[in-house]
Design a protein that fits this description.
Low-confidence stretches of chain B: none
Largest interface: A-B, 93 and 77 residues
CATH class of the domain at 1-78 in chain A: Mainly Alpha
Number of strands of chain A: 0
Largest sheet of chain B: none
Shape of chain B: elongated
Structural class of chain A: mainly alpha
CATH topology of the domain at 1-78 in chain A: Four Helix Bundle (Hemerythrin (Met), subunit A)
Largest sheet of chain A: none
Distance between the termini of chain A: 69 Å
Helix content of chain A: 55-70%
CATH class of chain B: Mainly Alpha
Order of helices and strands of chain B: HHH
Structural class of chain B: mainly alpha
Strand content of chain A: under 5%
CATH architecture of chain B: Orthogonal Bundle
Mean pLDDT of chain B: 87
Distance between the termini of chain B: 52 Å
Shape of chain A: extended
Radius of gyration of chain B: 17 Å
Mean pLDDT of chain A: 77
Order of helices and strands of chain A: HHHHHHHHHH
Oligomer: heterodimer
């Protein structure tokens, strides 16, 4: 039963990964990645990592992928059109992109294949035979201490042995949130003349450079 | 199932991610392929954690997920900023890092 489930989930994970790389439309790539992540969560469950599997489904396949879908919808249909690349015309009219693209694809496939062979040799060919590859003993009904992979087990580890990593991760999330706001904010820079030309009555009432919150968010309105 | 099977799947997923990063030109798909590579590494971490019966690998997998979420956050913010400036959404066209 577990072998059957492994082959189904493993095939789903690899098919999802192939879909991400091969599909033309970024929206379908995102959907393929969602399928890949759910298959990977099944593999995590088979490896007795229940909490990691739940986090994978909730955080990755739920939140992060919704963010991707929003950005794909916002940026719009910028998918690389196959016909244009076969004709050899780039998106800005430059010629010769098609041949460069096919060379790049061939080179990338060769490099990926070489890397796969190297990884398989490194992972499977060497010292792994010396260790028991069936995995350590697992006792789901253990009483007293928490059993392997549950939320209580992970929480216990995170708040005792790995407290520093936990705090560093939370600080990293804070920095990333601030960075995303700074990057995606509206600024009165290049290419936004149409938005800067709007003059509200508030701008006439307020003297310049007084350090109001509107100036901080929307840039100086003259 | 032997742990080696899981490691083989993780190696295949990682290599597919590398191929995606090299060959695709849309930065959104490049970010998705980066996710593939991180997930391949995560699967190997969880498999090794199971092999040793030790939870450290699972903690590391959770930290990797956090880092991946931060990377997605910053990367998508950059793509939105590029789109705002009406620059082409194409990693080959975006050669210059000067604002």
């Amino acid at each position: 039963m577990s072998a059957l489930l492994f082959f189904i989930a493993g095939f789903g994970a690899i098919a999802g990964a192939v879909g991400v790389v091969v599909l033309r439309d970024p929206f379908f790539s995102v959907l393929a990645l969602v399928g890949h992540l759910i298959s990977l969560a099944i593999l995590f469950l088979l490896l007795r990592a229940e909490f990691v599997a739940a986090v994978q489904v909730v955080v990755y396949a739920g939140a992060v992928m919704v963010l991707y879908v929003f950005v794909v919808a916002y940026v719009g249909d910028q998918s690389e059109s196959l016909q244009a690349r076969l004709r050899g015309a780039g998106p800005n009219g430059l010629g010769g992109h098609g041949s460069i693209g096919s060379d790049l694809r061939l080179g990338g496939a060769i490099l990926g294949g070489a890397l796969l062979v190297e990884l398989l040799i490194a992972l499977l060919g060497t010292g792994l035979g010396a260790i028991s590859s069936k995995g350590a003993g697992y006792n789901p009904g253990r009483v007293g201490t928490e059993s392997f992979g549950t939320a209580a087990y992970i929480g216990n580890l995170l708040l005792t042995r790995f407290l520093l990593a936990f705090e560093a991760a939370s600080f990293l999330l804070l920095i990333a949130a601030v960075g995303a706001v700074v990057l995606a904010r509206r600024r009165g820079g290049l290419g936004e003349e149409d938005e800067r030309d709007v003059l509200t009555p508030l701008d006439l009432l307020r003297p310049q450079g007084t350090g109001t919150m509107a100036e901080g968010v929307g840039g100086p309105r003259r | 199932m032997s742990i080696a099977w899981y490691l083989a799947v993780s190696a295949i997923v990682f290599s597919l991610g590398v191929v995606g990063v090299i060959t695709r030109r849309n930065p959104l798909v490049v970010l998705l392929s980066l996710e593939l590579m991180l997930n391949g590494a995560n699967l190997a971490l969880v498999a090794f954690s199971r092999m040793w019966g030790n939870g450290d690998g699972q903690i590391l997998a959770l930290i990797v997920m956090t880092v991946a979420a931060c990377e997605v956050c910053i990367g998508l913010g950059m793509i939105v900023a590029i789109h705002r400036r009406r620059l082409p959404i194409d990693v080959d066209e975006l050669r210059e890092l000067q604002g």
